[in-house]
Specification:
Length: 480
C-alpha cells in the first residue's frame, strides 16, 4: 500500500503547487507594488506642483498693518490659485501654512480638522512626504528671504512651514480593488495550474503504474507478462525495454531451470529404480551367492552412473555460481590433447575407430585438470558417435592469438535443427539413447562452461552424413 505523503504523484503535485504559488505570489506582489508606486508618484507630483503655488504665495508684507497677522509675513493667493485647490482631479487638495513660531497663518477651507504643525526636518529643495491615515501630505520649511529650492537649514532664518495634502481614499479603494483582482486572477491561475499539474503528473506516473502492475503480475508467477508502452522514445520507454529484456531472460532461465530439474530427476530415476528393484528382488527370497553378486554388480553400475551424473551436476552448479574458477598456470595444450588420445585409444580400438593427431606446440594459461576433461569429453563423443571403421582427427594449432583444439569425426553428423541446442544441458541428438542411461547429455555443457571460464569459446560445425567438427579456442599465454 502506498503511503499518501510518500506517493511520487503527490510529491510532484506538491512541488508543482508550491512553485506555482511562489511564482504567482511574486508576480502579484510585484505588479501591485508597481501600480501602487505609479499611483502615488502621480499624487506626489501633483503635491509638488501645488506646493510651488503655496510657497510662491508666502512673502513679506509691503507695509505693517494696525491689525491682522504678524507683521512681515503675507500670504497671497489669487482667486484662480485658490480655486486651483478646489480642483479635485486627483482628490481633494488642501494646504495649511504655519509661522515659524507654530501659529497657523492660513489654511484652505477643505483642510481636515485637527491638523498640527509637523516637525521640521527638511529644506525646500526636497520636502517631506508623509502618510497620515487616508491623507498623503507634503511638508516644506520655507526659509526667510530665500527662494524655493535653496538649501539653508538654519531655523533662525525660517519664515514658515507649509503642508499640502490630499485625500487618497479613491486611490486606496482602487488599489484594494486591484489587489482583490490580482488575488482572484492568481487563484484562478493557481487552480488551473493545479488541475493541469494533476493531469501532467497522472500522465507521467501512468507508465510507472503499468510497470508496477506488470512486475506484480510476474512476481505472482505469470512470467509471460510484458510491459506495453505506446511511447518508447523517452526514459520510461527505455526502462520498459530493459525490464522486458530482463523478464525475457528471467523467463528463459526459469524454463531452463524447470527443464533442468525435470531432466535431472529423470536421469536419476532410472538408476535409483534399478537399485531399488535389485534390493526388493534380493529380499523376496533366499538367493545363491552368485545371484547376490550379480545383483550387487548391477547396483554398483547404477550407483556409478548416479555418481557420474551428480558430479557433472555439481560441476555445472559451481560454474554457474562462479565458485569453480580455474587455477590457471602455464600448460601445454598439445600435451593435454596427447594424454586424452592415449587414454581413449583403447575405446577407439574397441569401436574400430582410428585416431589421427596433428599437434603444434602452444602454451596457454589454464587449469590442466579441467582442460583435460574438455579434451577427453570431445574425443570420447567423437569416438562413440562415429561409424564403424570411421576416423577421428585431433588438431592443436594457434590462430589469431588463440590456441585452437579441433576434434573432427566422420560420424553421421548433427541435423541443423539440433545444432543450436547441442550445448544445452541434458540435450541429446539421438533421443533413443535417452533411456539407455549411457550418457546424461551434460558433457558438452560442461565443456562449454570450462572453455568460457578460461576466456575462450566453443564452436560446432556439422553436416549430416559427413561428420562433425568441434572447436575450442583459448587465449594464448602472453610472454613477457
Amino acid at each position: 500500500m502506498i503511503v499518501f505523503h510518500k506517493s511520487i504523484r503527490w510529491r510532484l503535485q506538491a512541488w508543482h503547487s508550491l512553485v506555482l504559488l511562489i511564482v504567482l505570489a511574486a508576480f502579484g506582489v510585484t505588479a501591485y507594488r508597481l501600480v501602487r508606486e505609479n499611483h502615488l508618484k502621480r499624487v506626489d507630483a501633483e503635491l509638488q506642483r501645488r506646493m510651488t503655488i503655496v510657497i510662491a504665495a508666502v512673502g513679506p508684507r509691503p507695509r505693517p498693518a494696525p491689525l491682522g497677522p504678524r507683521p512681515g509675513i503675507a500670504f497671497r493667493l489669487s482667486p484662480e490659485q485658490q480655486a486651483f485647490f478646489d480642483d479635485a482631479g486627483l482628490g481633494s487638495f488642501y494646504y495649511v501654512v504655519w509661522l515659524s513660531d507654530g501659529q497657523m497663518r492660513r489654511s484652505s477651507s477643505n483642510a481636515p480638522p485637527g491638523i498640527s504643525m509637523p516637525e521640521i526636518k527638511s529644506t525646500p529643495s526636497s520636502g517631506t512626504l508623509r502618510a497620515r491615515g487616508e491623507f498623503r501630505e507634503l511638508t516644506v520649511a520655507i526659509p526667510r528671504n530665500l527662494p524655493f529650492g535653496s538649501r539653508s537649514t538654519n531655523d533662525v532664518f525660517l519664515r514658515a512651514v507649509a503642508v499640502v495634502g490630499c485625500s487618497i481614499t479613491t486611490t486606496l479603494d482602487e488599489l484594494d480593488h486591484l489587489a482583490w483582482g490580482f488575488s482572484a486572477a492568481g487563484g484562478g491561475v493557481l487552480l488551473l495550474g493545479l488541475l493541469t499539474g494533476w493531469w501532467l503528473s497522472a500522465t507521467a506516473i501512468k507508465p510507472i503504474s503499468a510497470i508496477s502492475v506488470t512486475a506484480k503480475s510476474i512476481a505472482r508467477g505469470n512470467l509471460s507478462e510484458r510491459i506495453e508502452l505506446a511511447d518508447t522514445e523517452n526514459e520510461l520507454g527505455e526502462l520498459a525495454r530493459v525490464l522486458n529484456e530482463t523478464f525475457d531472460r528471467l523467463q528463459s532461465a526459469y524454463r531452463r531451470q524447470a527443464q533442468f530439474t525435470a531432466d535431472a530427476s529423470h536421469e536419476l530415476r532410472t538408476p535409483a529404480f534399478v537399485i531399488l528393484a535389485q534390493a526388493q528382488s534380493a529380499l523376496k527370497r533366499e538367493r545363491t551367492p552368485a545371484e547376490y553378486r550379480n545383483g550387487f554388480e548391477v547396483c554398483q553400475r547404477a550407483a556409478q552412473q548416479m555418481r557420474g551424473l551428480i558430479e557433472a551436476l555439481l560441476i555445472l552448479a559451481r560454474q554457474d555460481a562462479g565458485e569453480s574458477k580455474p587455477v590457471c598456470q602455464p600448460c601445454s595444450l598439445e600435451a593435454i590433447a596427447g594424454e586424452a588420445v592415449d587414454l581413449l585409444r583403447p575405446l577407439a580400438f574397441e569401436r574400430n575407430v582410428s585416431i589421427h593427431s596433428e599437434f603444434k606446440s602452444v602454451t596457454i594459461s589454464g587449469d590442466t585438470q579441467q582442460l583435460r576433461q574438455v579434451a577427453v569429453n570431445l574425443l570420447s563423443n567423437a569416438i562413440q558417435y562415429n561409424k564403424l571403421g570411421g576416423s577421428v582427427k585431433v588438431i592443436v594449432t594457434d590462430e589469431n592469438g588463440y590456441a585452437v583444439l579441433t576434434v573432427r569425426d566422420t560420424g553421421p553428423g548433427i541435423p541443423a535443427d539440433d545444432l543450436p541446442h547441442i550445448f544445452a544441458r541434458f540435450y541429446r541428438v539421438d533421443k533413443s539413447r535417452a533411456s539407455t542411461g549411457e550418457h546424461a547429455g551434460l558433457g558438452l555443457a560442461i565443456c562449454k562452461a570450462i572453455v568460457q571460464a578460461h576466456g575462450g569459446a566453443m564452436e560446432v560445425f556439422s553436416q549430416v552424413g559427413e561428420g562433425t567438427v568441434f572447436t575450442a579456442r583459448f587465449p594464448l599465454m602472453q610472454t613477457a
